[in-house]
């Protein structure tokens, strides 16, 4: 897991999108954590639950996981 590149690329894309579509506030810490979330989830699954899997990229590196996280966040915070 390349921590600085994950965070750097994600914050770079977010700042470019913020120039085009300005928001009131961007939570940079939240964006940094969300950029690392697939690696953290898949690492925990690989180490503790599925140690015999062939790869460390399991479920959190799929589009479905991203959709589930977005739906969960929007139901938690409706004003987004």
Itemize the secondary structure elements and their pairings.
Blueprint: H1 3-20, H2 28-49, H3 63-76
Helix pairs in contact: 1-2
- With helices defined by DSSP (H or I, 4 residues minimum), what is the helix count? 3
- Let me know the number of strands: 0
- Contiguous uncertain segments of 5+ residues: none
Average pLDDT for all residues: 85
Kindly state the percentage of residues in helix: 55-70%
Radius of gyration computed on alpha carbons: 15 Å
Q: In angstroms, what separates the terminal alpha carbons?
A: 30 Å
Along the chain, the helix and strand elements come as HHH
Shape: globular
Output the structural class.
Answer: mainly alpha
Query: What does the main sheet amount to?
Result: none
Assembly of the depicted chains? single chain
User: DSSP strand (E) fraction?
Assistant: under 5%
Main features:
single chain; 80 residues; mainly alpha; 3 helices; 0% strand
Outline the structure in words:
With 80 residues, the chain is mainly alpha-helical. α1 packs antiparallel against α2. The model has no long low-confidence stretch (mean pLDDT 85).
């Amino acid at each position: 897991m390349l921590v600085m590149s994950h965070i750097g690329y994600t914050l770079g894309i977010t700042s470019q999108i913020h120039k085009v579509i300005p928001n009131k506030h961007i939570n940079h810490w939240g964006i940094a954590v969300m950029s690392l979330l697939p690696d953290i989830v898949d690492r925990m699954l690989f180490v503790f639950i599925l140690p015999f899997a062939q790869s460390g990229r399991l479920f959190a590196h799929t589009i479905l996981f991203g959709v589930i996280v977005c739906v969960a966040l929007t139901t938690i915070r409706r004003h987004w």
